[in-house]
Amino acid sequence: MQDCRDLLAWIYNGELERSIHQSSHPHITCDLEHVFAFGTSSGGHLSLCLGFGVPRPVAAILDFYGPCRFDDPFWTTGLPHIAAKLPPNLSQDFLNQVFAETPVPIRGGVSLEGQAGPAGPNFKDPRQAFAFTQIGNGRVMETCFPSRDWQKVDPILNIDPRFPPTYIVHGLADTMVPISLSRALLQEMEKHGVQCEMVEIPDEEHTFAAKMKVGSQTWDLQRQGFDFLESLIKK
């Protein structure tokens, strides 16, 4: 979260434009009145976190199936379809190797955004094994944020009338981040008068964005989110 917020401050401070000018394009200017945030899954959450807790929020947000409502029982409930993939011989010592990596790695090990190979996760890699163990056993939130001070990190607890215009895209078949969480977020935004919309994509699981086909129903529906952002530029 802090990295994204630092980047936003860097942009608003004129550093992006300065960098562009220094690199090769001295005539390009940045429209700082229309800095938008877009992300999928955890990136959707990070995008939402640029709408609060910063001196100057983004102008609008496009959130694809981002997690929120972290006190919901879902986050402490195991996912059987993930747990079933876990090998029975994963020792805690093996999983704990992730804490010994130096410097702190910036690679994820496996993508959940539709690019995984047909063989699935590589459970010989401690990082992949650790991640799927937490997901399968319902321990993601206690692992990522053990203090459980959700006010600091949960978008749904930080909605007020000043929150940026937001469009949510979520698949109806999502088993990794239930669509009910995005519906609750939309309801909270509506309650506070935030400009917001949501489209629900039939038959789509989590992380469908990387596998969309141009011209498909999914493609056409998710485009409404980008049309929403474009409409804000035209105002």
TrEMBL record:
It holds the Pfam family Peptidase_S9. InterPro entries: AB_hydrolase_fold (IPR029058), GDXG_lipolytic_enzyme (IPR050300), Peptidase_S9_cat (IPR001375). Residues 150-232 form the Peptidase S9 prolyl oligopeptidase catalytic domain. One of its GO terms (biological process) is proteolysis. GO terms for molecular function: serine-type peptidase activity. Keywords: Hydrolase. The keyword Transferase does not apply. This is Alpha beta hydrolase.
